[in-house]
Design brief:
The chain has seven helices and five strands, in the order E-H-H-H-E-H-H-H-E-E-E-H. With 162 residues, the chain is an alpha+beta fold. Helix 1 (11-17) crosses helix 4.
Length: 162
């Protein structure tokens, strides 16, 4: 079984864990309605049943693939934080966004290894120690080119990933 829980409302927990994200320049790229939705997400909801379901699926050998139906990447970081709070290790949570979906889709990607397809995100801090560090993106290597966050936010990089 493959499951994508899509826990979008956990954005409030994510912003509470890292209040600096409320002023992240990447939010300026969002339309005003989405930025307002992110910044005004209601208080934490009870996810105990969802947490149990997600962890039961994982423990039974099912694949958890992180994802969101929201058009803002910050929701994916919130999703990873939720997985760790549910009981996954940061390593297991990272796999839900890398190797697990690549394997599911039959892609020769998802890990950094010789001969593999790879776009790489360089972050500040170690996400294996604190999964919230995944949101502290400093550079992105995509299609063999390196971009800074300023390049991506300013739109100066014409062929940068979106």
């Amino acid at each position: 079984m493959t499951m994508t829980p899509t826990l979008s409302p956990t954005m409030r927990d994510f912003l509470d864990a890292d209040p600096g994200m409320r002023s992240d320049p990447r939010l300026a790229l969002d339309p005003p309605w989405l930025k307002a939705q992110i910044l005004n997400t209601p208080a934490h909801l009870d996810y105990s049943g969802t947490a149990k379901l997600v962890m039961d699926v994982q423990r039974a050998g099912g694949r958890i693939v992180s994802g969101t139906d929201q058009p803002e990447p910050m929701y994916l970081h919130a999703e990873l934080l939720s997985y760790v709070r549910f009981g996954m290790t940061p390593y297991e949570a990272l796999r839900t966004s890398t190797v697990t979906p690549a394997n599911f889709l039959g892609l020769d990607a998802g890990v950094i290894a010789p001969g593999k397809l790879a776009d790489i995100v360089l972050v500040e801090g170690d996400p294996l120690l604190d999964i919230a560090n995944t949101s502290k993106v400093k550079r992105v290597i995509a299609n063999g080119r390196m971009f800074t966050i300023d390049d991506l936010v300013s739109g100066k990089a014409k062929d940068a990933p979106r």
